[in-house]
C-alpha cells in the first residue's frame, strides 16, 4: 500500500486522528546530510596540507540503510529508509594573504525509499532528484604553508612532526528536490551554516585530527504546506586517527558525536534533542599520481528512544590536475 508520502491525512482503520506534526519533524530529521541520512558523518583529512593551485574532482557512489524509531503513540513501526546517492565534489586550492585555502563544492543525485507499518498497514513512499548543494571554504590558520610543485614536495619530505589549525564555513543551500505538501523530501528548503574549527597533529606516519562545528539552521516556512520549522543549534565533534602508508595511501578510524538541534514548530518547542554517535572506517589507495580510490563504511546510532540507526557504504574515485 502506497500512502503518498506517509500522508498526514491517513486516518487508520479505526478512524483515528491524523498523525501529529511531532511525527513529521522526527521523520524529516532523518534527512540531514548529502551522502547519508544522518548529519553525523565524520570525514577525515578535512585539514590536510595540499599544494595550492590544484584541482580535485571526486565521483562517489553511496548506499545507506537506516532503521527509524518513533514514539509508539505515533502508530509507525518497523520504518526503514534506503538511500542511493551519486555525488560529485570539486575542490580548488589557492593562496590568499599568505595562507592556504580550499574551496569545495558538492552536489548529489539521490533515490530514497521509505517503508514501514502505518497503524498496522504496510506503507511505502519514494523520492528521486537533486540533493541540496554544499559549499565549503577552509583556511589553515597555522601550519600548512601555501606551496606548490617541488617546493611543496620538499616541505612534505622534511616535515616529520607538524601541527595544523584551520577554520572553515560549510553552507547547505536550499537547492534540492522539495515539495512543500509532502512530509519526506531530499532537500530541506532552508539554509544551514556550519562554522568549523579543526586541529591536526602529525608525527611521522600517524595523525590525530579533531574537528568541532555548530550547525545553524535557517527557517523553513513551507514545512508540510504552511507550517514554520525552526531548529536550535546542533553541536558536533569529530575525531580521527590516521595512518599514512605512503603519499595517497592511508587508513583511518573516526568517531563522531552530536547533541542538541531541538526543533520548534510554529514557535512551540518539540523536546526532540538529537544525541547520536557515529563511527567510520576509511581506506584510500592511489592508482596513479593523479588518480585514486577510496572506500569507507559509516555507522551511526541514536542514544535516545527516538531517532535512527544507519549504515552507509561509499566508494569514490578522485582525479587531480
Question: What's the Cα radius of gyration?
Answer: 21 Å
Q: How large is the share of residues in beta strands?
A: over 45%
For the record, what CATH class applies?
A: Mainly Beta
Give the helix/strand class: mainly beta
Number of domains: 1
Helix content: under 10%
Give the full name of the CATH homologous superfamily. monomeric porin ompg
Protein name: MetA-pathway of phenol degradation
Organism: Microbulbifer aggregans
InterPro entries: FApF
Pfam families: Phenol_MetA_deg
Summarize the structure.
With 321 residues, this protein is mainly β. The chain contains 2 helices and 17 strands. The chain has a single domain, classed as Porin.
Task: Outline the structure in words.
With 321 residues, the protein is mostly beta strands. The protein has a single domain (21-320), classed as Beta Barrel (Porin). The chain has 2 helices and 17 strands. It has helices at 21-28, 149-158; strands at 55-69, 76-96, 99-118, 121-130, 133-142, 161-173, 192-203, 206-217, 220-223, 227-231, 234-246, 249-260, 263-265, 268-269, 274-288, 291-302, 307-320. The strands form 2 sheets. A 12-stranded antiparallel barrel has the order 1-2-3-5-6-7-8-11-12-15-16-17. The longest helix is centred in the middle third of the chain and has 10 residues, at 149-158. This is MetA-pathway of phenol degradation.
Structural topology:
Blueprint: H1 21-28, E1 55-69, E2 76-96, E3 99-118, E4 121-130, E5 133-142, H2 149-158, E6 161-173, E7 192-203, E8 206-217, E9 220-223, E10 227-231, E11 234-246, E12 249-260, E13 263-265, E14 268-269, E15 274-288, E16 291-302, E17 307-320
Antiparallel strand pairs: 1-2, 1-17, 2-3, 3-4, 3-5, 5-6, 6-7, 7-8, 8-11, 9-10, 10-13, 11-12, 12-15, 13-14, 15-16, 16-17
Protein name: MetA-pathway of phenol degradation
Amino acid at each position: 500500500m502506497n500512502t503518498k508520502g506517509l500522508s498526514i491525512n491517513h486516518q487508520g482503520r479505526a478512524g483515528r486522528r491524523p498523525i501529529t506534526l511531532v511525527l513529521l519533524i522526527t521523520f524529516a530529521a532523518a534527512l540531514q546530510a548529502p551522502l547519508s541520512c544522518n548529519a553525523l558523518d565524520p570525514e577525515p583529512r578535512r585539514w590536510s596540507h595540499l599544494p595550492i593551485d590544484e584541482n580535485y574532482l571526486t565521483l562517489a557512489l553511496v548506499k545507506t540503510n537506516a532503521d527509524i524509531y518513533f514514539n509508539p503513540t505515533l502508530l509507525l513501526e518497523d520504518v526503514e529508509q534506503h538511500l542511493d546517492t551519486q555525488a560529485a565534489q570539486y575542490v580548488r586550492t589557492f593562496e590568499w594573504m599568505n595562507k592556504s585555502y580550499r574551496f569545495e563544492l558538492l552536489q548529489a543525485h539521490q533515490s530514497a525509499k521509505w517503508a514501514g507499518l502505518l497503524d498496522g498497514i504496510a506503507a511505502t513512499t519514494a523520492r528521486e532528484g537533486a540533493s541540496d548543494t554544499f559549499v565549503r571554504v577552509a583556511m589553515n590558520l597555522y601550519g600548512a604553508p601555501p606551496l606548490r610543485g617541488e617546493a611543496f614536495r620538499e616541505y612534505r619530505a622534511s616535515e616529520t612532526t607538524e601541527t595544523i589549525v584551520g577554520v572553515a564555513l560549510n553552507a547547505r543551500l536550499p537547492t534540492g528536490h522539495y515539495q512543500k505538501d509532502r512530509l519526506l523530501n531530499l532537500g530541506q528548503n532552508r539554509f544551514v551554516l556550519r562554522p568549523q574549527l579543526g586541529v591536526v597533529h602529525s608525527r611521522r606516519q600517524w595523525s590525530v585530527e579533531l574537528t568541532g562545528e555548530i550547525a545553524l539552521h535557517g527557517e523553513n516556512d513551507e514545512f508540510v504546506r504552511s507550517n514554520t520549522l525552526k531548529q536550535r543549534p546542533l553541536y558536533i565533534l569529530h575525531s580521527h586517527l590516521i595512518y599514512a602508508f605512503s603519499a595517497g595511501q592511508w587508513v583511518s578510524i573516526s568517531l563522531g558525536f552530536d547533541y542538541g538541534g531541538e526543533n520548534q514548530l510554529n514557535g512551540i518547542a518539540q523536546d526532540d534533542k538529537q544525541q547520536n554517535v557515529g563511527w567510520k572506517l576509511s581506506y584510500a589507495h592511489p592508482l596513479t599520481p593523479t588518480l585514486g580510490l577510496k572506500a569507507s563504511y559509516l555507522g551511526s546510532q541514536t542514544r535516545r528512544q527516538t531517532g535512527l540507526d544507519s549504515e552507509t557504504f561509499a566508494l569514490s574515485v578522485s582525479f587531480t590536475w
